[in-house]
Amino acid sequence: MDKQRDFVLRTIEERGVKFIRLWFTDVIGTLKSVAIAPAEVEGAFAEGLGFDGSAIEGLTRSYESDLLAHPDPTTFQTLPWRGEIDPTARMFCDITTPDGQPAVADPRHVLKRSLARAADAGFTFYTHPEIEFYLLKSSAYGPDGPEPVDSAGYFDNVPGGTAHDFRRRSVRMLEDLGISVEFSHHEGGPGQNEIDLRYADALATADNIMTFRTVVKEVAIEQGVYATFMPKPLSGKPGSGMHTHMSLFEGDQNAFYEEGGQYQLSKVGRHFIAGLLRHANEISAVTNQFVNSYKRLWGGDEAPSFICWGHNNRSALVRVPMYKPNKGQSSRVEYRALDSAANPYLAYALLLAAGMKGIEEEYDLPPEAEDNVWSLTDGERRALGYAPLPASLDVALEYMEESELVAETLGEQVFNYVLLNKRREWQEYRSQVTPYELKSNLEML
């Protein structure tokens, strides 16, 4: 760590970095940033930077508000969009109390705790997210809703289109920040795009997702458009998911791989999927944390609505992708409910905890879904045991409130804060009179 710190201090000097932004997130997953001068960095490494935690969503109770942000030198990167005029860098921070204890409500620490528990069982957790978002002409919207930048569809090549330049610029910027991109393409909705990040350990992935959202927003502003990670911004069009491929490794061996197993999937992999399925409802209020998230889950267009798994079945909640012959290391499972607006630290902590519970308790994996789950009748789905995911944030919160797994993984303070914050959101949503009701009822009743 001392070597890393020395490297950071040397790089700041050599590149003439003028500002260093210290980044962390609140419980909802909003990025927070405080800029310090180069002269302050050594002190921030040694003692942390003090701030009032009670002013940040869910980070402390008001009577214990003093917190310290400790920059993690391994996350140091210069920010390419700041240019050469005032070179600026960033580091992610771990949050502690003044006596050096990890802040219980720091989302990064929640994920670190989950990863440490998996490490005690001999596992490293790797993730690979496919992040979808919409490009709109502006953040303003008229009676027909937001206006996308194009009317293209899945994998479309749009000559001279905004999205081409946008993706090229974004991918270059992400690579400059040390974030490897695997694919980028136009998605199914008008103005919808997807950029997939390469496999990394879950903590690096969560940091990368927070950086990714910032890069995408910055490039959009630069190009005179607006980017949104809202789960379902356009009625009748696909929502934006963050399908995540996951695997556990024991040393350099993929613990999900078993030669000759069905779909090359090991017993560990099967138990992990069973854990994801059994706890899917309990973790929904975190993996799908907004009222709008449930418009995506129940709006069709390949979003999963029912709890089941399948091999290469895009209507299932958990998919086991096609395996590549002689490529055991690529065995993985894909969780398809997660949306692009989730707090990645809390979401990955819970997905890992659910899978690990399945392994520890040796949950049985139910039979796979071979049909298109959406085309079955309710009766057929019931007979096959495919329970629905929560249909609203309200129902998701009821499941979460009863969940020992979620309470234990998040810790008491984060658990209580998420429930409190999301109940407030549901109350505000429920108490409004919507244009739909006025249009349907005002004249008729």
UniProtKB/TrEMBL annotation:
Known EC number: 6.3.1.2
GO term, biological process aspect, one: glutamine biosynthetic process
Molecular function as annotated in GO: ATP binding; glutamine synthetase activity; metal ion binding
Residues spanning the signal sequence: none
Domain GS catalytic: 107-445
Enzyme class: ligase
Residues holding L-glutamate: 296, 302, 314, 336
Protein name: Type I glutamate--ammonia ligase
